[in-house]
Amino acid sequence: MEELNLIWMQGQTCDGDSMSVIDAELPDFITFLARNKINLLYHPTLSPQFGPEAQKLFEDCLSGKVRVDIFVFEGSVPTKDGYGDFLGTDVKTVVKNFASKAMITVAVGTCAAFGGIPAAPPNESGSMGLQFKCYKKGGWLGEEYVSGLGFPVINIPGCPTHPDWVINTLQSFRLGRPVILDEYNRPKDYFEEKVHRGCKHCEFHERGLWAKNYTEIGCYAAELGCKGRTTNADCNIRLWNGVSSCTRSGAPCIGCCDPGFPMSMTPFSEETLSLPEDVKVIVNAKKKVLYGGE
Q: pTM to 2 decimals?
């Protein structure tokens, strides 16, 4: 099996996605790379190269001397001049340069995928995702961007992202398995379900038993504004570290995987009891099959 080269860079980020992936289990991130013969050329936290050594590595990558198979970017892209210097070059230029060389480009975290928190108003740095501005396709790389293998940017959102989403997507690429994307370029394997599905509070929702504060037993959707019914992610099916999730630990979902996060999720305490449009389509279609009629 031929060795693949992976380079991981960051824009405007809190490092949360890196920390999440580094904390992966079964396998851990380093073991995953070794098993799959993926050479981590550079990572801001894990790599020994910095300064002139890192600069030389980047120059070799961009000149074609060193192949870039997987380009992972974390954090939003500041597009206004004067923001985001990276070893003497602005981040937006670095992103375009490496994305133009990569066989696949992966946006890890909601900031990289859709803009996230840095893109919230007033957004003085002009931040956006690699190929999306919230719900709108385009982003810094543009609507028409495709990687060397013909993929758009693969978006793996979350604040932070789940480590399994990242590792499993890279594993699929490594093994040549198809990665089916939804309308926001998210892998359907992890973002087709709603956070609400699998939530241990579902039974309270069915009976209209609403928690009014974080210490009460009940569903968080009414008084506490849980976004689990409208947000796509398998958090309550996959669980985090195989143990828990936001709603299982006593907090409402704040919709961090949604392209509109955080702007479209505020105020976080707003009631969220209406059925999402995509679920309405499924429900109505099912009714038509079962009961006939329009």
A: 0.90
Over residues 109-127, the pLDDT tens digits come to 999 999 999 999 999 999 9
Q: Where are the beta strands (DSSP E) in 147-287?
A: 154-156
CATH value at residue 237: 4.10.480.10
For 85-148, list the strands marked E by DSSP: 85-86, 89-90, 104-108, 132-133, 136-137
In whole angstroms, give the CA distance from residue 93 to residue 77: 10
DSSP-based helix, strand, coil % in the chain, nearest 5 = 30, 15, 55
Alpha carbons 261 and 48: distance in angstroms, whole number: 34
Cα 230 to Cα 246: distance, rounded to the nearest angstrom = 15
Q: Are residues 64 and 185 both part of a single domain?
A: yes
Residue 277, burial from CB neighbour count under 10 angstroms (0-12, 13-18, 19+): exposed
Pull the structure tokens for residue 162.
């789940």
Same domain, 29 and 172: yes
d(CA 18, CA 111): 13
Token code pair at residue 191: 């973002």
Instruction: Tell me which of 122, 154, 189 is where a domain ends.
Output: 189
Chain mean position to CA 114: 8
Supply φ then ψ for residue 204, to 5 degrees. -70, -35
169: its two tokens: 């997507």
Structural domain count, the chain: 2
Residues 59 and 159 in one domain: yes
Q: Is the pLDDT of residue 155 over 70?
A: yes
| pLDDT tens track for 180-224 | 999 999 999 999 999 999 998 888 887 888 888 887 888 988 888
